[in-house]
Amino acid sequence: MQVIAVMNYKGGVGKTTLTANLGAAVAARGHRVLLIDLDPQANLTFSFYTVEQWREELRKDTTIMRWYEGDAPGREVDLHRLVVTPPLVNHHLADTGGRLDLISSHLKLIDIDLRLAARLGGGTTLGESKRKFLDLHGCLARALRHESFQEYDLVLIDCAPNFGLVTKTAIVASDHVLVPAKADYLSTLGIHYLAGNCDDLVAEYNDYVNHGGRDGADQPIQTRFLGVVFTMVKIYAGKPIGTQQYYMQDVRLNAQIGVLNGMVRDSPRHFGDAGEGGVPAMLRAPLTDEVAVEFGRLTTEILDAVEAGAKQ
Questions:
Q1: Which domains are assigned to the chain?
Q2: d(Cα 41, Cα 110) in Å, to the nearest integer?
Q3: C-beta contacts of 142-148 below 8 A and 24+ residues apart
Q4: What are the 10-residue block averages of pLDDT along the chain, 312 residues in total?
Q5: Which of 49, 135, 159, 199 has the CB geometry, 3.0–4.6 Å to 7, for a possible disulfide?
Q6: Are the beta carbons of 65 and 109 closer than 8 angstroms?
């Protein structure tokens, strides 16, 4: 099982659209995929369930908020008990041998960061503070080691556009980080800081594991960047428009992380409904569709990068 955190400090960059379609595209190749929605906006959840279905079937007992709340993450309910199987997309996947499951989000997840931050305080010794840090930051990583999750080939975590504690638990739990970005000033501005903050978190976590771990219960992490994926790319005469080319080249030259060759073009015809039908666009599009072909190449590039990283 490989885990990818999909994140960018900037919202509105197509993060959820990429996550939903990437997960569906990988499942369509016969793989078992789990999506975890950690964004309080819950747009990934609403890509597979209507708001009404969420309210009636998921809101009370089956969202990620149930796992994070309480005295400590996982104290109220085991993470694997929150997994649901969206019916419409899996009906579409029936002949592929793949499956796509989901742990849904909740609009009140936005309040969880403050509660988690409060739990970090109060340590009377350095050792106790380190144990609290590891307990909290490593909670999702430990939960995903449960045997119920080992049936999955890939886990995609849709992170909130921030670097709060919930997002940090996703980074610690992930083998890879994928950064979707629009080719504009605001969307690329924070990539440098995002890379630096992730590297700092990994270094701090591993230092605490090596000098204050809980008798082997916590493990060092090697979270790697898969790279930047440019989204909402406007194509003219077969290539991105000039202004976007400028920002794409700037990121390639100056960012600390690489840029994938594949991209997601701006296509309201494909992505305009934001998953309202419960089946991501790349499963509904004809195999010969130009946008679907491009997305297929991007999916292959990401899977190849994940496989190469797993072998290192």
A1: 2-311 (3.40.50.300)
A2: 9
A3: 142/217, 142/218, 143/67, 143/73, 143/74, 143/78, 143/79, 143/80, 143/173, 144/1, 144/3, 144/79, 144/173, 146/78, 146/79, 146/80, 148/80, 148/83
A4: 94 91 96 97 94 93 91 89 96 95 94 84 67 90 94 97 93 96 88 92 91 69 93 89 90 88 89 77 89 95 90 72
A5: 159
A6: yes
